[in-house]
């Protein structure tokens, strides 16, 4: 429905009430409706799921159509990110939000900062999704409100061409609302618990749920030690629980991202149930680190399995966990990924210990032998030392090519001493093109950074504190923050406008007409930023 159609339809509705609604202005209603396009979180989930499905198809046709996101721990951070994306690139296409369980644990738990071990309140996950979309919808309302003011000014000036141009822009307005890939950790309990939380997340607006194959009550951050995986059937029950939640709520195009931590997980809590040789349980158990026994008395009080006609005792730790054989991580990752895609997953996430394209591609090549259109969501993690990793990759490549590396110490490549060298320049170029190259070679559809705004908040606060509390004093804020906001056109330099003051003034005028007491008058200090 166009803006003018909306006005006309509302005018007819008001007229049908025989004068009792004559205090309601049809165009004001049309403006409020336009500023509030999404009525519920489910509206958002259905809308954004279609976007992700279209983007996945575009990537299948051409890997240069990869997508990106940054992790956001607060609605304001997500809002400012998408405002910046629209400002710099003119469109939000291909840019999403990522909701990190790590950042919820570290920043949003009522217990205070927690490690990424699923100890935070699971209700905080859907609450953050709802908060992010509240702020994105407010960004729409703010920007459209400014367009409506420009429309009024064009009318007052009798500029018909400008008025038509603005009406077209309003009709074709691109929302700040984009897909969120939301971390449901390992499901926070059994499959029923996963289903209940998935419903809340979807109702809040999530179109994509990322779930991992760790034991929920032993869950660890993907880049820490001590990870414990579960048998495939246990994990697939939770994948199905997420799909049931999507289907129950009518989000039929919802996305499930299955994450395998098997590359770094050397432990399992249980031996998989197996009915016959070669089934999923048997394949999972085949990776267990076992020792053959000749006499059953050797396994008193322990578990014994049959492997190729031999009695084998799985190695069990004092923690009652079982070990996998060393060096089986990649094979287990590949099996995890194929199994997930064959049982309802849409996208894969392989958590690696370093950003190495050929390592990722080696696994994806094997997966694609079975499922040709398999594609990944990949964590461009701040847990990686990107500078050191890529300098070492270049160093190793140069050694393999027979180049002279005698002026470099591989163990010290992070040093500032190497910043201006040819090796550092080549490493930085590889970092710059990593997402493009990995999308083309390693099947990565979506690149995300899990914790970037956690680090940027810390860095910018440190810089401001150093200057403001030091010799610079107030100049530390003005030079480093406010002047940059003005020069770079950062929306929140007009923080009253950003917080919704002008939207509130518009509503006051709708409700009270000339009697409205508005905040945006001549004495509002935000007018100092009009230029």
From the structure above, extract its key features.
single chain, alpha/beta, 531 residues, 8-stranded parallel β-sheet, 3-stranded mixed β-sheet
In short:
By secondary structure, this protein is α/β, with parallel strands linked by helices. It contains 19 helices and 14 strands. Helix 4 packs across helix 6, helix 8 (191-204) packs parallel to helix 9 (232-248) and helix 11 (329-342) packs across helix 12 (357-368).
Give a written overview of the molecule:
By secondary structure, the chain is an alpha/beta fold. The protein has helices at residues 3-15, 26-35, 41-61, 75-89, 101-107, 124-156, 160-171, 191-204, 232-248, 280-285, 329-342, 357-368, 386-400, 422-432, 434-441, 452-468, 474-488, 495-498, 501-512, and strands at 67-71, 95-99, 180-183, 208-212, 228-229, 255-260, 267-268, 290-292, 305-307, 310-314, 322-323, 347-350, 376-379, 444-449. The strands form three sheets. Strands 12-6-4-3-2-1-14-13 form an eight-stranded parallel beta sheet. Helix 13 packs across helix 14. The longest helix is centred in the first third of the chain and has 33 residues, at 124-156. The protein starts with a helix and ends in a 19-residue tail after the last helix. The mean pLDDT is 94.
